[in-house]
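In the previous lecture we treated proteins in isolation. Real proteins rarely work alone, and many bind small molecules. This record shows how such a complex is specified: first the sequence, then the SMILES for magnesium ion.
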Amino acid sequence: MKSTSKSTSKRTSKRTSKRTSKRTSKSTSRSTSTRMIIDAQSLSKTYRLGGGTVLALDNLNLQVQEGEMLAIAGSSGSGKSTLMHVIGCLDRPDKGTYRLAGEDVFKLSENRLAEIRNRRIGFVFQTFNLLPRMDALENVELPLLYAGFRGAKDRAAESLKKVGLADRMHHEPNQLSGGQRQRVAIARALVTNPAILLADEPTGNLDSRTGEEILALFGALNAEGNTIIIVTHEQDVAKHCRRQVHLRDGRVVADRTGPT
Ligand SMILES: Nc1ncnc2c1ncn2[C@@H]1O[C@H](COP(=O)(O)OP(=O)(O)OP(=O)(O)O)[C@@H](O)[C@H]1O
Ligand SMILES: [Mg+2]
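The predicted 3D structure, ligand included, written as tokens:
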């Protein structure tokens, strides 16, 4: 008799205890808007021109939480664009520190700074800055191609849908109205899912009704959790933002947050 002792030691221990400790590194927990996105301290910037100097930023502090929508307001020459360039990692100040989502950006190399700028900041300009020979879809796709994302076309199309231009994807800029061009620019700014959307006088080239529509779009995008900073010298534009930071001579002279 053969004692066919089937050693059925199945090794049940190896029950692949799926402890998927993947740690979803996507820390885009937008509902709890307590994360500090911008922490800029003691920013100073002097321009030298001819024999003289202009103090464009004078020991300026600014802190912004994730999910805020704020206006940086002030008269011409008060330092708004200079500040936007610093916040947008397009320029460095002479003095001060700047943490963008926790990262000390002025300590980074030029290459790394450019990478942060491409991925984490979405720019919207007064003059739209679209490429003329490319249609809306190609314009929106560009930042993704630069950043080496895959599936760029689909994401670009998604972004255009978000700004209400699903039916204008193959129009070139000169086949679009001013408001539609700015929507394309906003879709392009959003497509990389940036930490902040920075808009410098985004309604400056639009008639007032179209300008209102663009501001309403910013409001809707903010309601979805996007952090938005609008630079403007127009009080009418600033009042679309709950928080208004006023600059004068490169300094913050007022920082008010109104009711929701
Ligand atoms: N490249 C530069 N060289 C010299 N001075 C400059 C330069 N850029 C800006 N300035 C000066 O710095 C100050 C701040 O300029 P900035 O462009 O930040 O103002 P702004 O608030 O954006 O004005 P605007 O509402 O007219 O756009 C101004 O006095 C300006 O003349
Ligand atoms: Mg300006």
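Summary for your notes: The pocket of adenosine-5'-triphosphate (ligand 1) is lined by residues 47, 49, 54, 56, 74, 76-82, 233 (CB under 6 Å). Helices lie at 80-87, 110-120, 136-146, 152-162, 178-190, 208-223, 235-238.
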